[in-house]
Amino acid sequence: MKKKHFASKLVHRGEKYAESVSKSKSIPIVMTSVFSFDDVESLDAVYEGEANGYIYTRNGNPVHDALSEIMANIEEGERALAYSSGMSAIALSLISQIKAGDHVIAAHVLYGGSCQFIKTELVRFGVDISFVDVVNDDITPYFKENTKVVYVETISNPTMEAVDLQKIAQIAHSHHAKLIVDNTFATPVICQPLLLGADIVVYSATKYLCGHSDITAGIIVSNKETIDKIYSIGLLYGPTLSPFDAWLLVRSLRTLELRVRQHSQNAMKLARYLESLPSVSNVYYPGLESSATKVIALRNFQNNWFGGMLSIELAGGEKAVYSLFRHLKSIKFAPSLGGVSTTTSYPAKTSHRSFTDEELKKAAISKGLVRISVGLENIDDIISEFQEAINKINTA
Ligand code: PLP
Predict the structure, then answer these.
(1) What domains sit in the chain, N to C, each tagged with a CATH number?
(2) Residue to mutate, 121, 157, 185, ligand 1, most ligand atoms under 8 Å from C-beta
(3) Is the pLDDT score of 396 beyond 80?
(4) Mean pLDDT of 237-252
(5) Which atom of ligand 1 is nearest the CA belonging to 206?
(6) What's the pTM?
(7) Is the Cβ atom of 187 under 6 angstroms away from ligand 1?
């Protein structure tokens, strides 16, 4: 063959790997936007499902498939899909189940972004919404002829109430509605909503599933029929997860159980400690005796683990929160959660910033409420740091 020119060498050299008798121990990162074919017949065969293969990464990629296999398996679902953020997974799962003229019942305490999506986007598409206190109220009277979906979180963000998924699933199904559950805070290690009757489970995989605060991602798990429908819609909206980020998630999932166990044990110790302080007027954690939803958590959660998320109410209100954040040093104020290091967040100014004062009040999100994502440090160090910072709180 004629010798190639410099630019052609740059473009084509290194395309083939050497044959090898050994295999890579971790799965390869298939970092490609598109796949090539030897002929049109091979492409046709893949499109028609007659041959295994990939075409274009928005349609699918081997790393997405590896990730989906793990997630579907640990959730006891049939199939899973991975997207580029929790919000894209939430939006697609909701859109897939409703059309203009339908009605949705949603928990009145939800991650602010989900709430905002339901309130603005679904309403813009002509969907009628009822926000309901799914912990304290019976949802039955809120159903209408056209109710298609009930949307809740396993552990409400940021009030940390365990929601009775079994009961809600039964009521939803008796009204021919689907139950969609955001299981981000609990993770599949603690709760598997599909086994409790949910129809679709969604995750911000940005949090515990990834666990290292380095990517944004979302996951949806359900049965094959539902996932096939969401897959087709997702192709058109296109929130594709980068294969590299999918690979990081696969890597992270290998240690999910170990991490969630440690997060849970640390959070329980910190919750108990903070509950003993006079300057902390309330601690919200589903594992505490004082939690009104501990019975539900005990029934629905595995291993007596309650997750790594807790919220505290500072007696000194807003000023106390500002002062606390200034005095915490290794514990950063970072409005996300689920990473290896302990972080704080301030729901009234971050995740629930879009709520009006009235909505904040209704959802029991006060200006003194601090959300804590308890990390994997030695918990004695975390307790000492809170102790020191809380002692220094100055509300003058
Ligand atoms: N669900 C919950 C419970 C969350 O806390 C968040 C984000 O904080 C989301 C969904 C949205 O996920 P993402 O930020 O990955 O889009």
Answers:
(1) 40-253 (3.40.640.10), 256-395 (3.90.1150.10)
(2) 157
(3) no
(4) 98
(5) 15
(6) 0.97
(7) no
